[in-house]
Amino acid sequence: MQQRIVIVGGVAGGASAAAKARRMNDDVEIVMFEKGPYISYGNCGIPYYIGGDIPQREDLFLVTPETFWDRFRIDVRLHHEVLRIDRAQQEVFIQGPDGPFSMSYDRLILATGGVPLRPAIPGISLPGVHSLWTIPDGDAIMEMVQTLPAQAPVVIIGGGFIGLEMAEGLQQRGFSVTVVEKMAQVMPPLDPEIAAFAVQELQHHGVQVLLGDGVASFVETGGTVSGVRLESGRELPAALAIVSIGVRPETSLATAAGLEIGTTDGLSVDPQMRTSDPAIYAAGDMVESVHRCTETKMRIPLAGPANKQGRTAGHNAAVDLLHPPGDHQAFQGVLGTSIVRVFDLALAQTGLSQKTAELLGMDVQVSHTFSADHAGYYPGARTILLKLITERASGRLLGAQAVGASGADKRIDVLATAISAGLTVFDLEQLDLAYAPPFSAAKDPVNIAGMVAANVRRGQYRLLSKDGLQKHPADYSLLDVRSQEEWDAGHIPGAVHIPIDELRNRLADVPKGRPIVIYCAVGQRAYTAYRMLTQQGFSDLYSLSGGWQLWEGILDDPEYEVETH
Amino acid sequence: MQQRIVIVGGVAGGASAAAKARRMNDDVEIVMFEKGPYISYGNCGIPYYIGGDIPQREDLFLVTPETFWDRFRIDVRLHHEVLRIDRAQQEVFIQGPDGPFSMSYDRLILATGGVPLRPAIPGISLPGVHSLWTIPDGDAIMEMVQTLPAQAPVVIIGGGFIGLEMAEGLQQRGFSVTVVEKMAQVMPPLDPEIAAFAVQELQHHGVQVLLGDGVASFVETGGTVSGVRLESGRELPAALAIVSIGVRPETSLATAAGLEIGTTDGLSVDPQMRTSDPAIYAAGDMVESVHRCTETKMRIPLAGPANKQGRTAGHNAAVDLLHPPGDHQAFQGVLGTSIVRVFDLALAQTGLSQKTAELLGMDVQVSHTFSADHAGYYPGARTILLKLITERASGRLLGAQAVGASGADKRIDVLATAISAGLTVFDLEQLDLAYAPPFSAAKDPVNIAGMVAANVRRGQYRLLSKDGLQKHPADYSLLDVRSQEEWDAGHIPGAVHIPIDELRNRLADVPKGRPIVIYCAVGQRAYTAYRMLTQQGFSDLYSLSGGWQLWEGILDDPEYEVETH
Question: Is A242 helix (H, G, I), strand (E, B) or coil?
Fold first, then answer.
């Protein structure tokens, strides 16, 4: 009798698993059950379809069930919900459009994904209160978008990926958008000083952002939502509300079958993507993954890992059924690398954030550098802010964050690769990256970030964070080494001003008695001043990490000076 | 007495060395001699200034001698040529504008750069025959550009970085440009099938490209150049000729001083950038470097290495003179990573090319993949062609090449990082890179390239190169699995056509008797066909690497199908 692989769920993880399984094993039957009306669609594109960047709804559909059958002999069943797994009998029970039935399996692959969180807030079920996860979710929002009047008030609850992408899209559509975020920052994977640039960019484009406030209830008028009442007591008008506060793993089927659930509430799998039942694999938003830096478990509901996990699960399930069985593949784990576009900015990160590393009790060194995405003398250069999080003892890179209008994605991908490979800041300063004036600088932003972090690690200078200075301002004297014009345009209160090029002749004016925090626009002149003062006998010096620009939240004010950190 | 560092040459290597030396040692005197009229300028920008992308000449100047003095107390002497080194006395002899003089040094840093090759071709000294390396070179060409009539014929000899950048710039200026290249391809660091895309792009924009032909002589009319006579006998009109056939290291000063010259004719240095004289360091285009993959010596006259080497040399010279001396830094070597923009395309590479690896007798596996720079469903996706060169025995990445209108630079930088870290194709398929629809795909082009290469290495399929098929066409049967429309638009002569979705029902039509080479547009459907046929009992199969698109040289004809290599 022909052996059979049954796959539950047909989007990223399930579709990847199905195609890979077929390529590895042409003899098995492969059946894929999808609860909804579509498989293999680009759900990451839905916010861009709603916002209008993606003009056609059909653009979101990647592969049809017909193609899956013709090309791969994968039997796709839409509108089929798997209700129960009988692990002892290796059988699943399905509710289809024509009634319930059962099917046996030799290998089962679960890819049931995630479900948007919908807390029991009064009024959350009102018409006009939506989540966004699937195509039908998108269709429902799109229908409202096409009927609401211009300037209609829209409230987005949650400032994560989907929340910010929807804020951009709906503001572009001409609505009056407010983002409400319970935490003190948007984009939880980022550290707060980096996430602050997203808030600025949203505000710059007319989006209202309310941080540190949650939803108490949704207000009804005439049977549909008309407003949002916040925990602070504030009330916002809302013709449409979108709840995007996260997703939980859809593990009800797995839980009912007694499969092991991890500490993160995701389904436990081993590196082969095998659950606690050796006949059952799983992939995608429902499983928990291992972080490559910390070996800790975490959930990363993102498309990249889902596809790679699906491919691994599909491969392994398929080779189990070869005669003899083939070798398994292993999924190497996640870094949580991610990126979001917020109007003209990209914000990206990989690996550990500073706050996560500190929560884990790790001793990390952080540094911030601003540098141009390509040679400053070639038109169109835009600034990238890079933050590196490194293990203090070893200099090993643990995490990185980037903000910029151009090229932030490139630097985060380079740094994600560096983290995967265990590179240190000493490696980063010497990476041999591609340079021509339209693409980069002779010292790429990654090199410059590496140089600064390596200089700190070598003891050539010390950095003080904005946060550290803000917490204990009285502990330090401040020395601003920028030009007169820069000083006049704004400076940190209490600072002494000595322009860098006058410093050698004005050593007597350098403040004494307390540790000195030197700053310039981004840290480059401060470094020069630091090195000179050190050698002139000054001690207990710091450079303010990220300088005036990070202090003030100014991204694109590049100094086109020789970069010789 | 104050100790002194003398630096010879004030552009990339010299200027970097000077600034770093000062940061490490505030007590030494630093004197920088520059033969020409400028220091620290963006020479990589000169072609873009001539082409008009960089509007102002002054944009090219990064730091003035005044800034070097005010900020760093670096004594810059323009128009000063160092004529001789007396190593025994640690003294240099200089010809300055006011006559000759000598100066002692405690540490000497040589950064004399390179000199454009000017072979003894009859007429090469005619007015109108130029090289491009320095600002005065650029000024001389710019003067001609501003006086020549529209459509004037320009001949560029040499199809390397500068030649192609100048071809673009001068064509944009409205001249009628011909590139003459002695080799059978442009861009020598690239493999020929990749470099071919640059030729197509040049031709598409109206540049004439003549490969495999050299210059026999320059033709004179009225005292200036009027034409170029080629070795083939062909004669081209030329109101301006630019000779850009490479640079030689400027080592005459070093050679005369008896410093050791390497086998590549570059100055020998150790990883600390120290020459055979421990009091003399060197950096930049004049030195030879160690390739990180092969440990062999090579010369890489590029700005990235020059800056990093200069920084290393400056650091080490400066800490030698501390009391006690500080720790040296080491330069980690080069990958030869580079990129060139040719009109709308970027061509980039890192590490070893296939041809270099084969010349070195290495057993390499190569693969070609075409994939979209970002999600196909998000507007504006453009195709990237990636080539990986890997060590067959280990799967370790040795080199990579990329062509594309968008994002080729990103992928080469990721792959350069991977090579530096010793990553294998198995690591590449699992890199956790940043995905959102405007920036990448759930499987980034680097992941896809890694998947294909890893599948080959695991024995899941075999690739045949275009070259291998062209050399022995009679040895193979060809199977085209594309759609009817694609087949009708063009196919490889002699191929049998069975669309992928009909293949399962038409196994009897698959050609027999000889090894079968399967192809589709880019290799994805061929892989599916290969796997199916293998399991249906067919053996001795190949997939044509890069498929029809590489065969025909078609870059941007993406298939927006699910990418499940």
Answer: strand
How does pLDDT run across B338-387, given as a tens digit for each residue? 999 999 999 999 999 999 999 999 999 999 999 999 999 999 999 999 99
The owner of tokens 């049954």 is: A6
Show the tokens assigned to A187: 């984009």
Per-residue pLDDT of chain A (565 residues; tens, 9 = 90+): 899 999 999 999 999 999 999 999 999 999 999 999 999 889 999 999 999 999 999 999 988 999 999 999 999 999 999 999 999 999 999 999 999 999 999 999 999 999 999 999 999 999 999 999 999 999 999 999 999 999 999 999 999 999 999 999 999 999 999 999 999 999 999 999 999 999 999 999 999 999 999 999 999 999 999 999 999 999 999 999 999 999 999 999 999 999 999 999 999 999 999 999 999 999 999 999 999 999 999 999 999 999 999 999 999 999 999 999 999 999 999 999 999 999 999 999 999 999 999 999 999 999 999 999 999 999 999 999 999 999 999 999 999 999 999 999 999 999 999 999 999 999 999 999 999 999 999 999 999 999 999 999 999 999 999 999 999 999 999 999 999 999 999 999 999 999 999 999 999 999 999 999 999 999 999 999 999 999 999 999 999 999 999 999 999 865 544 344 3
One-letter amino acid of B423: L
Q: How far is CA B31 from CA A533, B10, B13, in A?
A: 21, 10, 14
Look up residue B186 and give its two tokens: 């442009």
The letter for the amino acid at A107 is R
Q: Which of residues 229-268 of B touch A (CB under 8 A)?
A: none
Decide if B71 touches A, using CB distance below 8 A: yes
With a cut of 0.95, is the ipTM above it? yes
Instruction: Check B307 against A443: CB less than 8 A apart.
Output: yes
Same domain as A91, residue A42: yes
Is A293 annotated as catalytic?
no
Interface test with A, best of B377, B425, B534 (most A CBs within 10 A): B377
Assign B219 to helix, strand or coil: strand
- Are residues B23 and A531, on separate chains, in Cβ contact within 8 Å? yes
Question: Scanning every residue of chain A, which has its alpha carbon at the shortest distance from the alpha carbon of B428?
Answer: A417
| Pair of tokens at residue B221 | 């009319």
**Cβ contact, residue pair A427, B420, below 8 Å:** yes
Domain, as residue range, for B476: 463-552
Task: Provide, as residue numbers in chain A, all residues whose Cβ is less than 8 Å from the Cβ of B45.
Answer: 375, 377-378, 437
**Is any Cβ of chain B less than 8 angstroms from the Cβ of A27?**
yes
Q: What is the CATH number of the domain that holds A403?
A: 3.50.50.60
Examine residue A81 and state whether it is found in any structural domain, yes or no.
yes
Task: Show which of residues 452-511 on chain A sit within 8 Å of chain B, judged by CB atoms.
Answer: 460, 500-501, 504
Residues A99 and A12 in one domain: yes
Domain count, chain A: 4
Residue B503 to residue B524: CA distance in whole angstroms:
15
Out of B341, B409, B435, the one facing A303 most closely (by C-beta) is B435
User: B418 and B271, same structural domain?
Assistant: no
B208 CB neighbour count, 10 Å cutoff: 16
Residue A478's CATH number: 3.40.250.10
Bridge partners for B96 per DSSP: B99
Structural domain includes residue A124: no
CA dihedral (A106, A111, A117, A120) in degrees, to 10, reads -20
User: Smallest Cβ distance to B303: which of A410, A435, A446?
Assistant: A435
DSSP string, A320-337: HTSSS---------B---
What would the 3-class secondary structure string for A220-261 be? EECCEEEEEEECCCCEEECCEEEECCCEEECCHHHHHCCCCE
Are residues A236 and A252 both part of a single domain?
Answer: no
Within 8 A by CB and 6+ apart from A290, the residues are A271, A296, A297, A298, A333, A334
Residue that is last in its domain, among A220, A245, A270 = A245
pTM exceeds 0.90, yes or no: yes
